[in-house]
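Design job #97: recover the sequence.
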């Protein structure tokens, strides 16, 4: 099922130039736009959103650099382009499971959602587009993305619950 879903999404890569450019932008650069948007909360209402920013940073670090790396150390899974003929728009090295991008951006999205529902929905949609683009460009399996989402949402909720106790 993972390969079938991957092929369904990746089959459109290298078909239309504009779609390839959009996918590369979403997969590689849109995350910076999302993180910059996070900083806008500080510019708008520093006191109200400072705690949210701190939680988002801690949950992103926990998700991407602790949990994802621990899982990758235990279980290494090659990226789709390593063992298959795919429509490849980007390359990366190292293991792909779980997706570090999905974990990081969904951890941030979860925290934002817990503080501001409307902005959180925007962050979740943006994070989903980043993840979809990473499958489209040939660097992640759908299961990598799903696992990263689970790690990210878990990290966000965990850090938020711990933060509430202190």
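Job complete. Output follows.
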């Amino acid at each position: 099922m993972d390969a079938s879903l991957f092929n369904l999404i990746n089959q459109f890569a290298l078909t239309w130039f504009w779609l390839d450019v959009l996918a590369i932008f979403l997969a590689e650069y849109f995350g910076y736009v999302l993180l910059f948007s996070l900083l806008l909360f500080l510019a708008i209402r520093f006191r109200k959103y400072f705690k949210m920013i701190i939680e988002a940073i801690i949950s992103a670090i926990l998700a991407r650099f602790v949990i994802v790396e621990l899982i990758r150390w235990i279980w290494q899974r090659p990226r789709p382009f390593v063992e298959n003929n795919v429509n490849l728009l980007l390359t990366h090295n190292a293991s792909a499971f779980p997706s570090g991008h999905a974990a990081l951006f969904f951890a941030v999205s979860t925290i934002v959602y817990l503080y501001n529902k409307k902005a959180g929905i925007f962050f979740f949609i943006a994070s989903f587009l980043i993840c979809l683009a990473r499958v489209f460009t040939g660097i992640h399996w759908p299961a990598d993305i799903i696992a990263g989402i689970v790690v990210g949402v878990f990290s966000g909720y965990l850090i938020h619950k711990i933060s509430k106790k202190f």
